[in-house]
Amino acid sequence: MLLLVIRESVHMGKALVAWLLVAGAVSGSAVGPRDVVQSAVSRVILALQKADVDTPEPNRRLVAEQRRIEIRRVATDLFDFDEISRRALSRQWTSRTPEEQAEFTRLFTDLLERSYIGRIEAYSGEKIVYLGEIVDGPFATVRSKVITRRNTETPLDYRLQLKDGRWKVYDILIDNVSFVSTYRSEFSRILQRESYAALVERLRKQTSEGAALIRTPRY
Known about the structure:
Layout: H1 12-20, H2 33-49, H3 57-78, H4 81-89, H5 98-115, H6 117-120, E1 127-136, E2 139-147, E3 153-163, E4 166-174, E5 177-178, H7 179-193, H8 196-209
Helix pairs in contact: 2-3, 4-5, 4-7, 5-8
């Protein structure tokens, strides 16, 4: 989900779509991280399929909007946006007030959701293969790969943390490139050249106007 440039790759577009398909959560500590990811993918694919080409024209806009609401809802359930925001802002996070942290998280979350909603909807039947999970205390990695119809493959790993009995995603590695790290680098660039206030103002304007004031990763 988004303002950054990471290296160009023909296959990473499909990987990003797969990442964004992770948008549902299964509650309960007894549910493993791999189960959470797999269940999430299935749930969002189902939401996408509800607005297929057979939907009557007068209803398409309504169905599409309902689908987007569902994707945002389940994304909020699965992704730990507080943790993502904290890691992306890095050292600046602790120097911010609770009010500033809350505003940054809200703006960043909205940007992540809105910027990539179109890419989620671009899903066209890519195959996702799960390779396993590694659990280390309250942290876990779910390894997978995306296989396109042309049989190209892109590694796609999910980093999760156990919080309040639930596994939640706090980072994604697309072709071994960390999603959080790329944002952290972009935010750091802005902070060094300008200021924290300037960064927040960019986020506010992007949220309200939809303007590309922070560069978006090109997958």
